[in-house]
Design goal:
The chain contains 16 helices and ten strands. By secondary structure, it is of the alpha/beta class. The strands form two sheets. The protein has a five-stranded mixed β-sheet, sandwiched between helices. The chain has a five-stranded parallel β-sheet with strand order 3-2-4-5-6, sandwiched between helices. Helix 1 crosses helix 11. The longest helix is centred in the last third of the chain and has 22 residues. The radius of gyration is 23 Å and the shape is globular. The termini are far apart. The structure holds 5-phosphoarabinonic acid. 5-phosphoarabinonic acid binds next to loops.
């Protein structure tokens, strides 16, 4: 298995290697704090060992549920928000083509999302879509009390019951929630839904390698064993290797902290493969919620190139110099498409015909990196061999582990998210929930 590596060629003129090496002891101390569980938030470190210790029975149970529900479901509606949604969507959308849901040759159910929005129009359309198709529901909430998924589940539970009757509706719902408490836990027990547990010591944004991510990913037809293998491989590297050259998590944590301390306030995660767009959404939550507190933290932003070179490219090249970029660089596509020769050459692109689309995309990538570097934007490159389950498993673990290291280097608790409660209090007060009033 080829492993992910990080290249610093395009950051060197901004931070010399000697500066990075000086920060290594700090990163190693952060790793010790993380692994020994002696830092803040140490009751949420279950994710560190998940790839190695996840009970194989859970993986078998997931496969049993897929075998049972997938053949009778054109759609699986996955209900969840934040950490109970983004990981599954990131992996599924990385592995499937953007166009796949539009193709009619799908052997596996198409995954649709709910509970991530309160838009009335969205639910109207969703109900229209599932009216004439068979579907099942996976409802995910760790607390079991989050408003958005609760609203979506209330609507879909009723719809399922009306469409299939109460008994079959029960068989078409799987709940993933806390082992002991919460409204969803109580409903699942009462209705006797097949259920999976979110471990107490794994926070939402670190939960993709629990049933929260694994069940929807398996429902979509992807290989969760390979995903876990990739994560396990990266875990060995993150825990076992001690230098910046052989441990990409140490290097990434050191690089982003060094750049932040130099005054860079924004990190842009860049892809040249549209499938990786939701990896960026997941990464934004991971780093934004973990580091954005106590008045500190890099602002995580993302762009999809070359699309966004024709919009935000201008700002990155010549706007305020407050950012660096981290490029997800994919070496090999899984498929090939030929650019045809055209005798008339009216479009003037015959000079490209001996190149693959991937060569052209890579030239766009290198051209962009060189231009942005020239424009004062340091560029970190994360090298992925290809986009498959193993590589995505590696990437997930790399980002999670580096996030723990980076948060401790920043001297924040990377495992809490007190700030996400503020909007809820106001929303509950505005909606008249008993016990809530608007704070002046
Ligand atoms: O990372 C987090 O903790 C949050 O994004 C939660 O996952 C999100 O708020 C959903 O919470 P819950 O799973 O309790 O419904």
């Amino acid at each position: 298995m080829e492993t992910i590596s990080i290249q610093t060629k395009h950051t060197q003129q901004f931070i010399p290697n000697s500066t990075l090496q000086k920060l290594l002891p700090e990163a190693l101390t952060a790793r010790e704090t993380l692994v020994k569980g002696t830092g803040e938030g140490n009751d949420f470190l279950g994710w560190i060992d998940l790839p190695a210790t996840l009970d194989p029975q859970i993986v078998s149970d997931i496969k049993v549920q897929v075998k049972r529900l997938a053949p009778k479901s054109k759609y699986i509606v996955v209900i969840g928000i934040g950490g109970s949604y983004l990981g599954a969507r990131a992996v599924i959308e990385a592995l499937q083509s953007e166009l796949q849901p539009l193709m009619n040759c799908n052997e596996n159910p198409t995954i649709i999302y709910a509970g991530h929005t309160l838009s009335e129009d969205y639910y109207h359309q969703l109900l229209h879509l599932i009216e004439s198709a068979d579907y099942s529901v996976v409802v995910i909430s760790k607390s079991g009390t989050t408003t958005e998924p609760a609203v979506a589940f209330r609507i879909l539970k009723k719809h399922l019951e009306q469409k299939y009757g109460t008994t079959e509706a029960r068989e078409r719902i799987i709940a993933i929630t806390d082992a002991k408490k919460g409204a969803l836990h109580d409903i699942a027990q009462q209705e006797q839904y097949p259920s999976f547990v979110i471990p107490d010591n794994v926070g939402g944004r670190f939960s993709v390698l629990t049933p929260v991510g694994l069940l929807p990913i398996a429902m979509a037809g992807y290989n969760i064993d390979a995903l876990l293998d990739g994560a396990r491989k990266m875990r060995d590297i993150c825990l076992g290797n001690n230098t910046l050259e052989d441990n990409p998590a140490l290097l990434y944590a050191v690089l982003r902290n060094a750049l932040y301390r130099q005054g860079k306030k924004v990190e842009i995660l860049v892809n040249f493969e549209p499938n990786l767009k939701y990896i960026s959404e997941w990464w934004k939550q991971l780093y934004g919620e973990s580091e954005g507190k106590d008045g500190k933290g890099l602002l995580p932003h993302s762009l999809s190139f070359t699309t966004d070179l024709h919009s935000m490219g201008q700002y990155v090249q010549e706007g305020e110099r407050l950012m660096f970029e981290t490029v997800l660089s994919v070496a090999h596509p899984l498929n090939s498409v030929e650019l045809p020769f055209d005798e008339k050459n009216l479009d003037g692109i015959n000079y490209l015909i001996n190149k693959s689309l991937n060569d052209i995309n890579h030239s766009a990538e290198l051209g962009t990196i060189l231009a942005h570097e020239e424009g004062g934007v340091p560029v970190i490159q994360i090298q992925l061999n290809k986009i498959d389950e193993e590589t995505i498993g590696q990437l997930i673990y790399l980002f999670e582990f580096a996030c723990g290291l980076s948060g401790y280097m920043l001297k924040v608790n990377p495992f809490n998210q007190p700030g996400v409660e503020a909007y809820k209090k106001n929303m509950f007060a505005l909606l008249g929930k008993p016990g809530y009033s608007l704070e002046k």
